[in-house]
Write a structure and sequence with these properties.
By secondary structure, this protein is mainly alpha-helical. It is built from five helices and two strands.
Length: about 90
């Protein structure tokens, strides 16, 4: 299983935004992915590898993560899941 929005990112978001994107029944934040693909997404440099670097870079584009909207986070999650796991959200 893989978190669409990394747990480290959830901690940086406004609590109300995190509450919405954290995941819930019928709106999961975790997806089943092949273990080798999962490891590949987290390879590369930096903590969490390429997947986490992608999130850090995208959040910088919206400014401070605490100012990211639900729409910003959902857009980034959709792009990340497509890019790294070929999952369309």
């Amino acid at each position: 299983m893989h978190h669409g929005v990394p747990r480290a990112v959830l901690k940086q978001l406004d609590p109300e935004v995190a509450k919405v994107v954290r995941g819930a029944r019928g709106r999961p934040n975790r997806r089943a992915v092949d273990e080798a693909v999962h490891r590949g997404a987290h390879s590369g440099t930096g903590r969490g590898g390429d997947y986490s670097t992608f999130w850090r870079d995208e959040l910088r584009r919206v400014g401070d993560p605490r100012n990211a909207t639900v729409e910003d986070v959902e857009r980034i999650r959709a792009r990340a899941m497509l890019r790294f796991f070929d999952i369309v959200e």
